C-alpha cells in the first residue's frame, strides 16, 4: 500500500485530492477541529465508535467535509504537520539546487524533548 502511494506521489504533476485522501488513510490522519462545539465533537466520538478503524470519518462525506482532509499535495505545510505528528523529534529537510533535489528525515538526537527517547 505504501509503495503504491509513493509511486502515485512520484507521478504527480499537480495537486491531487484523491492522493490527499489516500495519504490521510495511510497515515490514519485524525482531524483537528479546535472550533468544534461540544455537540459536534461528541457526535464525532460517537460516530467513530461504530467503526473498527480510526479513519472512518474520511469515508463519510459529511464528516470529511466538516473536518477536512489536508491538501498534502498542494500545500507544503500539510505534509510538514503530518511529519511532525507521525515522527515527533525527527529533523527534516527538503531542498533543491542545480545538481540535485533531495529530502531527508533523521532522528534529532539532540532534541531536548525527544532526544532521550530516540536514543533508546
3D architecture notes:
With 120 residues, the protein is mainly alpha-helical. The protein has a domain at 87-120. 48% of the residues lie in helices and 12% in strands. The protein contains 7 helices and 2 strands, in the order H-H-H-H-H-H-E-E-H. Strands 1-2 form a two-stranded antiparallel sheet. A hairpin with a 4-residue loop joins strand 1 and strand 2 (101-107). Helix 1 (2-11) runs antiparallel to helix 2 (17-26). Mean pLDDT is 79; it is low at 35-39.
Q: Tell me the strand percentage band.
A: 5-15%
Q: DSSP helix count? A: 7
What percentage of residues falls in helices of 4 or more residues? 40-55%
Record field, number of beta strands: 2
Structural category: mainly alpha
Search tags:
globular, 120 residues, two-stranded antiparallel ribbon, mainly alpha
Secondary-structure map:
Elements: H1 2-11, H2 17-26, H3 38-49, H4 56-59, H5 61-67, H6 77-86, E1 90-96, E2 101-107, H7 115-119
Antiparallel strand pairs: 1-2
Helix pairs in contact: 1-2
